[in-house]
C-alpha cells in the first residue's frame, strides 16, 4: 500500500510539472516566444553546427571562456534559467554559466549527468566516450532514441543538446581516455571533471591524473542492481563502503600512485539486489563474456543502474557556484 501511495505521489508530481510547464509557456511574452521560434528555425535551417546559436563558442583556453554575465543578459537564456537564478541568485548562476566541465563516460550515469549540467546552464562541456549508442543503451541513456543507434554517444549528446541549450559550447570527443589522450582531454583548466567510467584501469588513471594536475574531480562508482536513492552518498573515497568498485579503485590508487583519499565519490550503501545470469553466445551455449569485449577490461553486460546521480550533480554545481559542500559520510540507516 505504501508503494502504491508513493507511485501515486510521483505520478501526481509529474503531472503537476507538465501542467506547470504549459502554464509558464502560456505566460511567456509573445516577443520572447517569437525570438525562440526564430532561433529554432535558424538552427533547423542550418542543421547541427559547432559552437552555439549566438556565437558564444570558445577556443579552448581559460581566457576565452563563456562569460556568464554576458550570456545571462540574453533574454531567452535568462528566461530559460529563471528558476535557477531565483533559487541560486544571479551571481551564483553566473559562476555556473561561466564554468567548464569535462564529463568522461557517457552511459547510464554520464549521459544523465551531462544532460542535467546542460540544463543547469553550464556554459561549456567536453563530452568524452569511445562507444556508440546501442539498442541495449536505450533503457538508461538520457537522450538517445532508436534513430541514434550506431552513433557515437558523445556526438549523440551534442546533437540533442543543441536543441536544449544551444548557447552552451559542447565539444564531443570520440575516444578512449588513456595516457596518450590525457593532455587533449584535461588541458584547458576545467572547473570540474566528472568521472563516469566503469573500467577500473581507465578510472584509476583518470583520477590519478586529476590529482596530479590539481583538478577538481567527482567520481561515480558502482550502482548496478541498486534502486534505493535514499542510500546514495557523496563522501571521500577512503570513507566509501559496500561498494566493490570504489574499494578496488581505492586500493589501486594507494598502491600505484600513493593517493590515499581526497577524492569525492558518489556511491550507494545499498547491497545489490541481483546478479548477472550466465552469459550465452549466439549459439545459445554459455561462453566467456571477456571474449566479446571491444576493449580489454570493459563490461559486456549491464544490469539496471541508478543513472542520474542527483546528489553528485548538486555537489558539483554547488562547487561551481562557489558554495561547496563539506564532505561527510551519513551511514545511519
TrEMBL record:
<dbReference type="GO" id="GO:0016874">
    <property type="term" value="F:ligase activity"/>
</dbReference>
<feature type="domain" description="THIF-type NAD/FAD binding fold">
    <location>
        <begin position="82"/>
        <end position="238"/>
    </location>
</feature>
<dbReference type="InterPro" id="IPR045886">
    <property type="entry name" value="ThiF/MoeB/HesA"/>
</dbReference>
<keyword id="KW-0812">Transmembrane</keyword>
<protein>
    <recommendedName>
        <fullName>THIF-type NAD/FAD binding fold domain-containing protein</fullName>
    </recommendedName>
</protein>
<keyword id="KW-0067">ATP-binding</keyword>
<dbReference type="GO" id="GO:0061504">
    <property type="term" value="P:cyclic threonylcarbamoyladenosine biosynthetic process"/>
</dbReference>
<dbReference type="Pfam" id="PF00899">
    <property type="entry name" value="ThiF"/>
</dbReference>
<keyword id="KW-0436">Ligase</keyword>
<feature type="transmembrane region" description="Helical">
    <location>
        <begin position="6"/>
        <end position="28"/>
    </location>
</feature>
<keyword id="KW-0547">Nucleotide-binding</keyword>
<keyword id="KW-1000">Mitochondrion outer membrane</keyword>
<dbReference type="GO" id="GO:0005741">
    <property type="term" value="C:mitochondrial outer membrane"/>
</dbReference>
<dbReference type="GO" id="GO:0005524">
    <property type="term" value="F:ATP binding"/>
</dbReference>
<dbReference type="InterPro" id="IPR000594">
    <property type="entry name" value="ThiF_NAD_FAD-bd"/>
</dbReference>
<keyword id="KW-1133">Transmembrane helix</keyword>
<comment type="similarity">
    <text>Belongs to the HesA/MoeB/ThiF family.</text>
</comment>
<keyword id="KW-0472">Membrane</keyword>
<dbReference type="GO" id="GO:0009536">
    <property type="term" value="C:plastid"/>
</dbReference>
<dbReference type="GO" id="GO:0061503">
    <property type="term" value="F:tRNA threonylcarbamoyladenosine dehydratase"/>
</dbReference>
<comment type="function">
    <text>Catalyzes the ATP-dependent dehydration of threonylcarbamoyladenosine at position 37 (t(6)A37) to form cyclic t(6)A37 (ct(6)A37) in tRNAs that read codons beginning with adenine.</text>
</comment>
<keyword id="KW-0496">Mitochondrion</keyword>
